[in-house]
Amino acid sequence: MQEPTATETTSWRIEELRRLEMCERALAHAYRSHPRSGELWDGELNRIAMHHLQHAAILRGRLAALGAEPGDGMDDEWVRGGDLVDAERASLATYHDHLTDLDPATARAVVEFVIPDHAMALHCLDPQFEPDRDGAE
Questions:
Q1: H/E element holding 60?
Q2: Is the distance from CB of 19 to CB of 75 less than 8 angstroms?
């Protein structure tokens, strides 16, 4: 079996980054359109939505650094079914599964910012979840 060329590897990474960026935007949209109850809860949902938009911006920056453009629209892979807990679990699993596939600068940003934010969001939604398992402080 032949190893992929550098161009094929870069192309695959770009497509993966596009998909992750679109998933982050879809997750932010899911938080913003979630039925709200109470001022505090509303503030938490908005805060988490803003973190997901920041993640999308980080990923767009990495796409630009690789000479690529972000994708159009959103990818609802994480939010299918509408349950935010399931969406956060799916996002964490996706990032953990693909961490070694990312270029070093993107992987560092994901480990330092994205994974901890997803873990904290999951803890907010499900207090039984222990965020420190995923590197969140």
A1: helix 39-65
A2: yes
Q: Is residue 1 part of a domain?
A: no
| pLDDT of 114 higher than 80 | yes
**Separation CA 56–CA 54 (nearest Å):** 5
Q: Which domain holds residue 118?
A: 6-134
- Condensed to tens digits (0 to 9), the pLDDT of residues 58-83 reads 999 999 999 999 999 999 999 998 79
Return the structure tokens found at 71.
């994708």
Q: How far apart are CA 121 and CA 65, in angstroms?
A: 28
Please check whether residue 48 lies inside any domain of the structure. Answer: yes
